[in-house]
Amino acid sequence: MHDTSEPRRFWVLLRAQVWLAAGYFVMAVLGFLRHTNGNGDEFADIAYQQYLGTVVTYQLRVVPAYAIVALAYALLLFPLLHRRRALRQVACGAGGSWAHARLFASLALADGALYVLSMGPFFHRSPGLLDGTARKMSVIAPNLDYYAVYRWHVLDAASVAFAALCAWALVFYGRRWVRRLSAAATVGRLLWAAPVLAFATLGAWAAAPHTAPALPTVGDGPAPLNVLIIATDSLRFDHLGVHGYRRRDISPNIDAFAADAVDLRNLHVATASTLESWVSFMSSQFPPDHGVRYMYLRREQAEHASRLPDMLPRVLGAMGYDTTVVSNWAGNCFKLVDVGFEHNLASDTQNFESFIMEATIWTHLVFPLYFSNDLGAWLIPETNRITKYVRPSALTEKMLGQIDRAAGEARPFFGLLFYSVTHLPYAATYPYNVKYVDPAYRGPHRYQIDVSVHDLISTGFAPDLPPDTIEHIRDLYDGAVSEFDHHVGEVIAGLKARGLYDRTIVIVTTDHGEDLYDPGSTLGHGTNFFGGDQSTHVPFFIRVPGLNRPGATVDAITRNIDLAPTLLGLLGGQRPAGWAGIDLGPLLAGVVADLDLLAFAETCYLFFPKSKALVDLTADERANLLESKGARDTLEIDRGFDNNMVLRADLHDEVIATKDRMVRTRRWKLVQVPGVERPILRLYDMLADPHQTTDLAGRGLAVQPRLEAMLALYWQGGGGEPRWPAAWEDPAQVPPVEALTPPLR
């Protein structure tokens, strides 16, 4: 009664596996609904009210992944279960419901075991998966030590067991395949296949890059210098060993590079927000001139910015450079605004649909485990909008591959390699995410900052966390810095292995700094100018082949709008007339000690009401504050613009008007916060008071009206390049404003 053929038993098992997969799918959908519906999250409400079709579509688009997994599981488990009595009974129509129940129960247990075993090889391949699991599960079970699976070699053991299971399945099916063939036919097939396999192996060997190509010479002279910018999002100036940080082991690779480079120690960005900062860098213009004042641009704004003719990558492309940007979600701004890179390998813009898709994928756990690869990208191409489970070193490999391609084409390259590791939520990969934290810590934000979108747009980051939690957050951030340092070392080693290090201008920097509960601040960046320069003051190291000033430092004020003219000057290009920045070449060469520059900046778009970002205002100042609205009241979804979140057109002027603004000299910093009746002013002596604890505004210092005039010149745009002579750092030496109008330059 139970002697059914193996093919029939396999089809019965496969059918049962498909039914179980359908059950897993339904449970995942129910979990998605439970976690996203009816929890007071405005964006979740929008998803169900206006994008219900998209929610349903993404759920259905995961179904093929379940089908593939069901087939794979059936193939792997059949060798173990093919003799099970329940399977034989069901295959021959005996046993009734009880046999079916036993079959489904045994198959479900086998599925669970196989899923656990498969975590070994798949977690090894994509370490970010374990990090993501630890972050999510730590909320449910905070006392578990998730990374013990590394220390106790649990993943290694699971990988061995999974490999053994796969090997056993191959033997099982191989033996049956051989039995179905005559010996002569088997030998004949092997003889026929041997030359094919040999040819394929030889072809793969020949196609593999055995040694990386070096950039050849062009014409009769040496090739032009290449340029490679290695950057991470939200890197603080003062959290590097070379800048005296207390953890001297945090950045050994950057420290070693700094000893071989020039360190611009007083460089400031115009806006501590990624899109605005990079546009300022590439256009050599301040925000009032290039017009990108917030990250949620409408279509016409993005298209206008993309047409700016003098972006650095376009200028270098016209000079024959191969230009490439490589980034994950941190650099998706380069897909929103085209700054001119010939090869744009950044993630697509994270539109509203991508948030729905991300929530879907992380609910259906088979997808991130088995499909964080090319197959997953083929099934759901939109996964390139979210790359949280992709190891950062994949970006390194991609950029080095682009460099090899440019070298093979005999073209100099200009590359921007932009990581996200130091950006909120400080989700470094293991072991960096536990490198500095207290092993006994079990409080909130254990492996990353945990803040919901609802909380962020409603209240911002909590201003009154316990000291141990704040210290833990800083420890998480330092681990992320250490991971970035590791990648810097990998990239530089890759350049050296290719013989390109001494033919390449290498820059290590960031787009902006970061608040880490400095005085008067919470988390984030660009929300205000209090507590110090931690958001606008950024590290910048540049190594120029032939410039023999290793380890030199430049203490003069410099700005990120000066970097495009500086690079173009080093490469011998012709400066576009519309650039506002200054060529810093004389500073790099040590010809001059200062260029009398002023740093200007403005705050970025706020997700939450402005009053939440300003924690140190008096009651009168708070009553006078020109308040701004948060994301809930200012953003909308533009269905005609790829479902991107954009700022409402009628609120553009209001958002600009509520921006804080700042001007910085070597010694002085003036902050202007817009008020209903009058501006709220803060003046600080940054040499004596770097953390801005003592406000000097309104005390009659002659620098204040002068700096106010400079700030007004910046704000109106098109004002040229004002200067601040060293003598003016002494308030007694500052001429009255009327005596200097015009000129203010």
Task: Provide structural commentary.
- This protein is of the alpha/beta class.
- Among the domains are: 6-180, no CATH class; 226-349 and 386-596, 3-Layer(aba) Sandwich (Alkaline Phosphatase, subunit A), CATH 3.40.720.
- Helix content is 45%, strand content 10%.
- The chain has 28 helices and 19 strands.
- Strand 15 (635-638) and strand 16 (644-647) form a beta hairpin.
- Helix 3 (52-61) packs across helix 17, helix 5 (85-91) crosses helix 6 and helix 6 packs across helix 9.
- It is elongated.
- The termini are far apart.
Please give the alpha-carbon distance between the first and last residues: 99 Å
- Mean pLDDT equals 87
Query: Could you name the CATH homologous superfamily of the domain at 226-349 and 386-596?
Result: Alkaline Phosphatase, subunit A
Number of strands: 19
Across the major sheet, the strand order is: 5-4-6-1-7-11-2-12
Measured by DSSP, the beta-strand proportion falls in 5-15%
The CATH class assignment of the domain at 226-349 and 386-596 is Alpha Beta
Largest sheet: 8 strands, mixed
Quick rundown:
The chain has 745 residues and is α/β, with parallel strands linked by helices. Helix content is 45%, strand content 10%.
Write the layout of secondary structure elements.
Blueprint: H1 6-36, H2 42-50, H3 52-61, H4 63-81, H5 85-91, H6 96-125, H7 128-140, H8 148-151, H9 154-179, H10 183-207, E1 226-232, H11 252-258, E2 262-264, E3 267-268, H12 274-283, H13 287-290, H14 299-306, H15 312-318, E4 322-327, H16 333-336, E5 343-345, H17 352-363, H18 366-370, H19 374-379, H20 393-408, E6 413-419, H21 453-459, H22 467-497, E7 504-510, E8 515-516, E9 523-524, E10 537-538, E11 541-543, E12 553-554, E13 558-559, H23 563-571, H24 585-589, E14 599-602, H25 619-624, H26 631-634, E15 635-638, E16 644-647, H27 652-657, E17 661-664, E18 668-673, E19 680-685, H28 703-716
Parallel strand pairs: 1-6, 1-7, 2-12, 3-13, 4-5, 4-6
Antiparallel strand pairs: 2-11, 3-10, 7-11, 8-9, 14-17, 15-16, 17-18, 18-19
Helix pairs in contact: 1-4, 1-5, 1-6, 2-3, 3-17, 4-9, 5-6, 6-9
